[in-house]
Write a structure and sequence with these properties.
This protein is an all-alpha fold. Helices cover 66% and strands 2% of the residues. Helix 1 packs antiparallel against helix 2, helix 2 packs across helix 5 and helix 2 packs across helix 8.
């Protein structure tokens, strides 16, 4: 008998996840290539900022398992997860929830910091004019340090995926591609209909428009 497939991750959440992954890699690569690619680094950063703004809002109005209230837990829940105690988490468990918040915080800070950073040669963020040169230099230094923290967090994230696959025989990647799991209670399913997707599209459009206004507004 084939196990019933249950929708856990809605399409907007999945598209966000993979789009952010691609853009983060692209941003890091273009930053190190430099030259004419720096313009694409900035564009990628703006796209990342729009995605982060979208995901924060989606954490309140998105699908069931994308909402912060569904996966953020207090110290007791986190301690239980660290002890390996089983719990009925169809979506992110408490440790996965912490990883989500850490990713949003570090990548969001990186995208915002890039708006005020400079390379002391020919490129600078669109909001450099709002701060002093000393402040911009400090933000630039933090921007470079934070890049290393993001890389470390990504490596840890990938290592956790392999750990779950190897030790717990749990594939965390497939559900983020298909949206479905077969080992959860059908009552844990999330809506993934046209109405939810339209809401996500409108929210993403608003996030993109806000970032465009921020980087293009006159001094």
């Amino acid at each position: 008998m084939t196990a019933q497939r249950v929708r856990i991750w809605d399409l907007p959440t999945r598209l966000f996840h993979w789009s952010l992954a691609v853009l983060v890699v692209f941003s890091i690569v273009t930053a190190h290539i430099g030259g004419a690619w720096i313009d694409w680094h900035f564009r990628s950063g703006y796209a990342v900022l729009a995605l982060i703004a979208f995901r924060i809002a989606w954490g309140f109005v998105g699908g069931r398992h994308a909402r912060f209230a569904n996966f953020l837990r207090g110290p007791s829940g986190i301690a239980a997860a660290l002890r390996g105690e089983p719990a009925p988490h169809a979506g992110h468990n408490p440790l996965g929830g912490l990883s989500v918040i850490a990713m949003l915080a570090l990548i969001g800070a990186q995208a915002v910091g890039g708006l005020f950073a400079n390379d002391d040669i020919a490129s600078e963020g669109p909001l450099v004019r709002l701060v002093s040169k000393a402040t911009s230099d400090t933000i630039t230094t933090l921007h470079r340090i934070n890049e290393k923290l993001i890389i470390a967090l990504v490596v840890l994230h990938v290592a956790a995926i392999f750990f779950y696959l190897w030790r717990k025989r749990t594939n965390l990647v497939r559900p983020m591609i298909t949206g479905d799991k077969s080992d959860v209670d059908p009552a844990q399913s999330t809506p993934d209909d046209a109405a939810l997707r339209v809401r996500a599209a409108l929210l993403l459009a608003l996030s993109a428009a806000a970032v465009w206004w921020l980087v293009k507004k006159p001094a």
